[in-house]
Amino acid sequence: MKLPPFAYARARSVDEALELLGEAGGDAKLVAGGQSLVPVLAYRLFRPARLVDVDSVSGLDGIVERNGEHEVGALVRHARLERAELGGAHRLLALAARHIGHAPIRTRGTLGGSLGHADPAAELPVAALALDARVVARSARGEREIAMDDFLLGPFSTALEPDEMIVALRVPAAPARSFAGFREFALRSGDFALASVGVVVAFDEDGAVSRARVVVGGVEPVPRSLDALPLGARLDPDTIAEVAHVAAASCAPADDRTVDAATRRDLVAALVRGALTDVGAQAA
Amino acid sequence: MTGRWHQADERVGVDVVLNGSSVTLHASPRWTLADAVRAHGLTGTHLGCEHGVCGACTVLLDGEPARSCLVLALQAEDRRVDTVEGLSDGDELHPVQAAFREQRALQCGFCTPGFVVLAAWLVDSEPDADDERVRDVLSSNLCRCTGYGSILAATLAARAGHA
Fold first, then answer.
1. Residue A104 to residue B58, Cβ atoms within 8 A
2. Which pLDDT tens digit goes with each residue over A118-147?
3. What is the least distance, in Å, from the CA of B90 to any CA of chain A?
4. What is the ipTM for the molecules in this complex?
5. What is the number of domains present in chain B?
6. What is the pTM of this model?
C-alpha cells in the first residue's frame, strides 16, 4: 500500500534531529534506513504525524575501540557490521548481523533502528543483551546510558523517551578468552527467525567457564538471558546437551500461527547446542 | 531541504544523480523512491508488494542494492540512484541482461527488473562470488512464476563471462 501522509524533516546533525523532535512535541518518529518503519507505515499499522529523517546525520557511523570497549554508532548499517573486524566475544554483533533479512535490506538497515524498533525476533537486541551492552541515548536534556537489561520493555517497546535518540551502542570489554556463537532458525533464508540464540562464554586459564550469557530471541515477548550455563563447568558435549535442555525448559514460548510452543522449545535446544558447539570449536 | 518541515502534501524537489544524469525528482514526503522514479517516467522499476518483501523494486542507492519501496523519495536527495534503465550502454546489454535473455530467465517478467539490478550489482561488485553466495543474494527477491532455476543459471553464466 502507499504510505499514509506525514510531515517530514531531514536532520544533518544529532542536535538538529533533537530540535526537530522537540518541535514535533512527541508526535514524531525517527527514520533512518526505514527497513522496519516503512513497512509498518505501508501496512498502516502506525501513523505518526511527522518523521524526522536521521539517515544522513554525520558522525554516527563509526565503530571505535577504546581499551577493549567498542562503541558502535547508531547509523552503522548491518552490511558494515557483518563485515566488521570485531575480535573475541564482540564478534557476536557481526555473526548476528549476517542473519538480518537479505543483502539489500542490510545495506540500509541500521543498528540504532534495530534496537529502537525492538522487534521480538530481531537479531541485534539478542547480541547486545548477550554482550551486556549499553544503549547511548541523547536528548536536549543530555546523554545517558541504558543497560540492555533495562532497555527492552516489551515487543516494540523500549525505555527510550519520546525526545531521545539512540546515538550508539557501547559494548564493554570482554575477558581475554571469550568467544561468541549465534544461531537462528527461519523457515526461509531472510525470514524472521522463529527462534535465535546468542551466546558469549569466557574461560579461565584452566578452561573452565568463568562467565556465560545465553540469550534467546524470538521466543518470548523480549529477548531474555537464561541462567543455563553454570560457572566452573567444562564446555564438553555432555554439558552442552544439558545446557540446551535446561535452556529449552526454562523458556516460555507461546503457541502461534507458525509453530507451537513445543516446537519452539525444540528449536531453542538445537540452537543453544549449535551456538555452544561453535564456541567450543573456537576455544579448542 | 534540511532542517525544516515539509508538509505531507507538499511537493518537494529532490536532486539526485539518476542513471548518471543530474535530475530533480518531484515528490511528497509520503512518496517512496520507487514512486518518484516511476513518476519521473522510469517505469522499469516495478512495485510488487510495496512493503519490502518481493524485491521487484530493487535499485542501486549510492551503488548498493536497496528496495526502493522502503526508501523515502526525499531520503534520496544528493544520492546516486541507478535503475534497470541505466544498466545497458545504449544497445549494448549489461552481461546480466544478455544472460537473462540467453537463458530465458523470465516468464511474465514482472520481477525481472529487480532481479537484473540485483544480479548485475553482485556480478559487478563481487565477480569471484561463489555459487552459494550468488544463491544467497538472489534469495532476496521473489519470482511468482517460480523461474528461479533459470534466474540462477543466468546470473552464474554472467559471472563466468565476467571473470
1. yes
2. 999 999 999 999 999 999 999 999 999 999
3. 27
4. 0.95
5. 2
6. 0.96
